[in-house]
Design goal:
The protein is α/β, with parallel strands linked by helices. The protein contains 16 helices and 13 strands. The protein binds iron/sulfur cluster (SF4).
Length: 485
């Protein structure tokens, strides 16, 4: 059985069964870097990098990096007692089955300032809960906390600035007081519920929608859980659970759903795709030649280029397929930025050229529209031409959400989930870059010099292949829908 961690404690407050499972399941530590996808690896590395940069705010701090929690807790105790140490990084605490690590503790006479480092820019209730959990365990261990603060990424940071300017300090000392007393009251009950040899009886709760145990727990044997209903509200979820309804098959027709939700119910209950009459007319409204557009972007905490705020969506490449009639590709153009510099202006100019003329521009989701709007704001001299492109955009995902649903979509309208159902012969499996996260990480690694020479050339080609596959998928999906509508 594991010690209670922040994740186990907060999960138990949502659902005792989830907390119990987390505490009692086999856990061999975080997945090794070598077993992560490139996209996951990049996110892990970025988090580690931010943690290291945050330490620069605290002079002469001591890092607790012992290999086990027990050893780390012992080392922490001795460093806490050394009054010459002004700050401690990754201090470890263990008490009666509870464990935690604090990102930074800064000594203030007999008290301590507690800091939690986050990779996000926006303050969030969950961050306060994280901070409150750590503060609770520290308080129980006899640590006097003078203040509790978050270090978030500052939107004002720009490449080249000192690390201390990367962070925005938010004092939550007052906010965590209320949370602390709530958590404190649960100290015993969480421990008892999660160390009991018998797993607590599960009951469907709103937290089930994001729970990794759903399929083996209350969702066991349910092929189409009610969470597959798009945008299901918590109120509707509770109404259904009150009637013992957990599967879409069991939702009565008298239960009010929105138009888009009703399509999903109808498809699941009949076992057949639902095709609305409007599908055909909306597809017929397209003007030809039709273009299919997809962007890839780089979004990073530490900006890749000067004058860019953290987490700015920087478009780095696009693919455009053009068809003169359904399913018939008449042209393909593409663009991949030079990773060593901010190429957004060049990308925008090329995009305008590649989409010149008339005809609808099909995209999948609002993402492409957002990118073009941002480019128009950034380069007012291209504003009129970019606005013209926006006028021609048609979102295929919106058309589908209103007019078409296949029971095999399993609640997802994402391109990667609908493609195997509609166009099974077109797969991403043989591509070196199979998803957007890997594409993002690949571009960042190119921009930061991790790939060089032939390897860099090969990765650039992989990026082009991936983006091209996305727009080819749109061509094929359009073809399939045309045959249905
Ligand atoms: S699926 Fe629901 S009931 Fe089961 S452990 Fe998860 S949150 Fe709890």
């Amino acid at each position: 059985m594991r010690n209670i961690s922040k994740e186990i404690f907060l999960s138990t407050l949502l659902c005792e069964t989830m907390g119990w499972r987390l505490r009692n399941e086999e856990f061999s530590g975080p997945t090794p870097l070598s077993e992560l996808t490139r996209g996951q690896r990049f996110r892990r590395e970025q988090g580690i990098d931010i943690g290291i940069r945050a330490r620069e705010l605290f002079q002469d701090g001591v890092l607790i990096d012992e290999p086990t929690t027990e050893l780390a807790a012992t080392k922490t105790e001795s460093v806490l007692n050394d009054r010459n140490v002004p700050a401690i990084f990754e201090a470890a605490f263990l008490l009666n089955g509870y464990a935690t690590r604090s990102d930074v503790l800064r000594r203030r006479a007999d008290q301590w300032d507690l800091f939690e480092v986050k990779s996000g820019v926006n303050d969030h209730k969950d961050y306060v809960d994280d901070l409150a959990y750590t503060a609770m365990v520290l308080s129980k261990c006899g640590i006097k906390i003078a203040s509790a603060k978050l270090l978030l990424i500052s939107r004002e940071f720009r490449l080249g600035m000192d690390n201390p300017r990367l962070f925005n300090e938010i004092d939550h000392s007052d906010d965590i007081l209320a949370r602390l007393s709530e958590f404190d009251a649960k100290w015993e009950t969480v421990d008892e519920a999660t160390k009991n040899p018998i797993m607590p009886e599960p009951h469907p709760v709103w937290a089930c929608r994001n729970c990794s145990f759903l399929k083996e727990c209350v969702g066991n044997g349910i092929e189409n859980p009610i969470f597959d209903i798009p945008r299901l509200s918590e109120k509707k979820f509770n109404d259904l659970v009150d009637s013992d309804i957990l599967s879409i098959e069991a939702i009565p027709l008298s239960f009010a759903l929105t138009e888009n939700q009703d399509i999903v119910r109808a498809a699941v209950q009949t076992g057949n795709p639902v095709i609305n009459d409007n599908l055909s007319s909306e597809l017929h409204d397209l003007s030809w030649p039709v273009h299919y557009l997809d962007f890839e972007t780089a979004v990073t905490a530490i900006p890749l280029y000067e004058e860019i705020a953290p987490y700015t969506q920087v478009p780095t490449q696009y693919s455009v397929h053009q068809s003169d009639r359904v399913g018939n590709i008449s042209n393909h153009t593409e663009y991949l930025a030079d990773p060593t510099k901010d190429s957004r202006f060049e990308l925008a100019v090329n995009l305008i050229n590649d989409l010149s003329g008339d005809g609808s521009i099909i995209v999948y989701s609002h993402f492409e529209k957002t990118i073009i709007i941002d480019l128009a704001k950034l380069y007012p001299q291209l504003g009129e031409q970019l606005s013209d492109l926006i006028e021609r955009l048609v979102d295929m995902q919106t058309i589908m959400s209103k007019n078409y649903y296949h029971p095999a979509f399993k609640g997802s309208m994402s391109l990667k989930d609908i493609l195997p159902v509609l166009v099974p012969e077109l797969s991403y499996e043989n591509l070196t870059i199979p998803d957007g996260g890997t594409a993002l990480a690949t571009f960042v690694y190119l921009a930061t010099g991790r790939y060089q020479g032939e390897e860099a050339d090969a990765e650039k080609q992989n990026l082009l292949d991936y983006c091209k596959q996305d727009t080819l998928a749109l061509v094929k999906i359009h073809e399939q829908l045309s045959q249905l509508g």
